[in-house]
Amino acid sequence: MPHEQVRQPIDPQPQRVDPQPVVQAPPEASEARLRQLFDTQFDFVWRSLRRLGVPELTVDDATQEVFLVVSRRLGDIEAGRERSFLFATALRVASTTRRAIGRRGHHDDEAVDSLVDHSPGPDEVADRQRARAVLDRVLESMELDLRAVFVLYELEEMTMAEIAATLELPPGTVASRLRRAREAFQATVARLRGAR
């Protein structure tokens, strides 16, 4: 008798392979990472918001908003890209904050001026306030896309490559925006000097 082959029936439902389960970091690791980001990047976020046009009286609230977003999206932040995420978030929070202030139609600059710094002398405080006010006026006059590149390069001292990665722009675009921002900065400073 010839050898019969036994055929296996074909399963109409192929075996499904479950995707790899999402591995969540333990809560302690997430808390530690958030704490580390807060401790090391708080000043960067605060300065960025301030330089992106958030008034001094609301910059603390805006900084808190950035870190609230970070706490909710911590799992989405790639290791090594934290500063990029923080700056992109700060950019959005600054934009939202400025729009909200514009809708209210007022600024509390007088309240800021009434704050007293006890450590340096009055002349130094006045010089710092004038310089800060001039810088704020110059930065406010720039388009936001130019201002972001200018702040990161000139004030935060990031490299062009870091800025390109942070803002997710081609290096040529970063260079072009920096050149235009410098031109706008120089023109505004010259205009302010001429107004004296």
Plain-language structure description:
The structure is a single chain. The model is unreliable at 16-23 (pLDDT under 50). The chain has 2 domains: 27-105, Rna Polymerase Sigma Factor, Chain: A; 120-196, Orthogonal Bundle (Arc Repressor Mutant, subunit A). The protein is an all-alpha fold. Helix 1 (27-51) crosses helix 3 and helix 2 (56-73) crosses helix 3. The protein starts with 26 loop residues before the first helix and ends with a helix. Helices cover 69% and strands 0% of the residues. It is built from 8 helices and no strands. It has helices at 27-51, 56-73, 82-104, 109-113, 122-141, 144-155, 160-167, 171-194.
The overall pLDDT, averaged over residues, is 81
CATH level-two architecture of the largest domain = Orthogonal Bundle
CATH class of the largest domain equals Mainly Alpha
Beta-strand percentage range: under 5%
The rounded distance between the terminal residues' Cα atoms is 113 Å
What's the main sheet like?
none
Can you write the helix and strand succession as a string?
Answer: HHHHHHHH
Calculate Rg over CA atoms.
Answer: 26 Å
Blueprint of the fold:
Elements: H1 27-51, H2 56-73, H3 82-104, H4 109-113, H5 122-141, H6 144-155, H7 160-167, H8 171-194
Helix pairs in contact: 1-2, 1-3, 2-3, 3-7, 5-8, 6-8, 7-8
Question: How is this structure best summarized?
Answer:
With 196 residues, the protein is mainly alpha-helical.
List key phrases describing it.
196 residues, mainly alpha, Rna Polymerase Sigma Factor, Chain: A
